[in-house]
Amino acid sequence: MKFACYTDEFRNKFDLELEMWIIMADCEVKECTQLESGHTLESYLKNKKIHFQGRGGTSFIPGLKKAYELGTKLCIYFTDLKGHWGERPKGMEVLWMVVNNKTAKPNFGKIIHINN
User: Measured between alpha carbons, how far is 1 from 105 in angstroms, rounded to an integer?
Assistant: First the structure.
């Protein structure tokens, strides 16, 4: 649930009304859900409106492509940063939230390391 806490904290700091999509992906997009205004990811998980899916066999390409198709300006990607990159999406910033991989360096975007 650490992922949910970080996501909800980010949303609270900036604007609960900002449009936010949760994209679950590994080598393909598994689920794509828009958080309704005023709701948290934690509440969606507790009420089973969204389920963690994916893990393993990671390619960042499908998740970034879906975010781009949604018109995303900032994509916050929670990952261990082990996967296939593809190209930097044009017009979209990527913030990598990296868990348990302190030596990881992304091919593009900015990185924040999270201690598990």
Answer: 24
